[in-house]
Write a structure and sequence with these properties.
255 residues, 4-stranded antiparallel β-sheet, binds cobalt (II) ion, 15 strands, binds 2-amino-4-trifluoromethylsulfanyl-butyric acid, alpha+beta, Creatine Amidinohydrolase
Length: 255
Amino acid sequence: MPLRESETIVLRSLYEIERLRQSNIIVAEILNELRADAKAGAATIDIERICEEEIKKRKVVPAFKGYRGYPYCICSSVNEEVVHGMPCKRVLNEGDILSIDLGVLHNGYYGDAAITIPIGSVSEDAKRLMDVTERSLYIGIDEAKVGNRLFDIGAAIQEYVEGNGFSVVRDFVGHGIGQSLHEAPQVPNFGERGKGIRLKAGMVLAIEPMINAGGHEVVVLDDGWTVVTKDGSLSAHFEHSIAITNDGAYILSKL
Ligand code: MF3
Ligand code: CO
C-alpha cells in the first residue's frame, strides 16, 4: 500500500486470528497453484484467469478487484516492475522474474501474500535478489514480537538488504490487515530500531519488503498502478500476513 495517515490499531482475538488464518491459507494455496502456471510462454493475463477460477472454486472474494478501481485479482509485476503490475498480454520469457500478489476476503476477514518466482532459469543476480528479499521478510517477521517496536521490523529488513548491496523501496509499505485489506499501522521495510509503537499480542500485520537491485527510487507508470524502479533495475517482492502472539509471530499465509 502507499504511505498514508495512521489510525487506530485493532487487536484481534484468537477467534479472529483463526479466521484470518483461513483467509490467508486460501491465498497461500492459490499462490502455490499459480507457481506451476508461471512458465515461459504464458501471458500474465493467463495467470489472472487461472486465479479467477481458483477463487471461484473456493467461493471467496478477490480483495484487490475493485479496490480503488483496480481491475484484477492479482498484481503481476515482471522484472523492473516493483508492485501493482497489471495482468496483460505480456508473455513471460525464460530468465524473467515474476511477482504475484494476491488478496482474498473470506467470512469477513482478509488474506494477503505475495511471492516472486523465477521463469525457467534466471541470472545469478536475479536469484540472489529473490533470495535476499525472501530472507529479509523472515528476518522482519522474527522482529514482530511482543515488546519490540514497530520500526524494529523495518530496521532489521533494511540492515540485511543493504548489507547485501540491494535497496529498500520507501514509497510503499506493509500494513495492518483484518476486516479491511489495509489497516493501521503502516509497516515500513526501513527505519530505526527502537522507534514506533510497541508491538502487542493480537496485532495482525502484512509485512511486504519490496527490494531493488539498484537504487530505491520508484516511479508509477501512466496506467496509475504499475510501480517500476526508476533506474530500470530488477525488483523482488515477498509478503506474508502474520499475527503477533505471546509465543512470537504466527505466519498466517504459510502452508
Ligand atoms: N499487497 C498489496 C498492498 O497491500 C496489493 C494491493 S493491490 C491493490 O498494497 F490493487 F489492492 F491495491
Ligand atoms: Co499487502
